[in-house]
Design goal:
Helix content: under 10%
Shape: globular
Strand content: over 45%
Number of helices: 0
Number of domains: 1
Structural class: mainly beta
CATH class: Mainly Beta
Order of helices and strands: EEEEEEEE
CATH architecture: Sandwich
Distance between the termini: 23 Å
Radius of gyration: 15 Å
Strand order of the largest sheet: 1-8-3-6
Length: about 120
């Protein structure tokens, strides 16, 4: 059938891959960043989506991935990633203030793998 796509061996971000797009944000400054197009340019066109958030915390940095059940009033930490540690979390993101990345201490690299 013509509508099948081969996914075996396809690299992330290429045709047929599980992750349609990889959005790199290298050297992201200290701050709180809700997953939206204003904070992560380019991600808005994919929302709502399931996204793997990959973190490479810079030296002296701590990065947390947080979720809110009340549109940004209260935040709950899902994971805290220490300096020079690579980690990732697989999350469902929408266009409201429900998922954020908080960077403290030093710049860090964030990559969003959009499914």
């Amino acid at each position: 059938m013509a509508d099948k796509i081969t996914v075996f061996g396809a690299a992330a971000g290429t045709a047929g891959a599980v992750y349609r797009r990889i959005l790199p944000y290298v050297g992201k400054a200290i701050g709180n960043y809700v997953i939206n197009d204003a904070n992560f340019p380019g991600v808005g066109q994919y929302l709502p989506a399931r996204i793997l958030i990959s973190v490479n915390a810079g030296a002296g940095s701590t990065v947390t991935i947080q979720v809110s059940s009340d549109n940004g009033t209260t935040w709950f930490t899902l994971v805290s990633i220490a300096a020079a540690t690579a980690a990732g979390q697989y999350l469902m993101c929408d266009t409201a203030s429900t998922i954020r990345v908080t960077i403290a201490g030093a710049v860090s690299d964030i990559r969003l793998f959009v499914e």
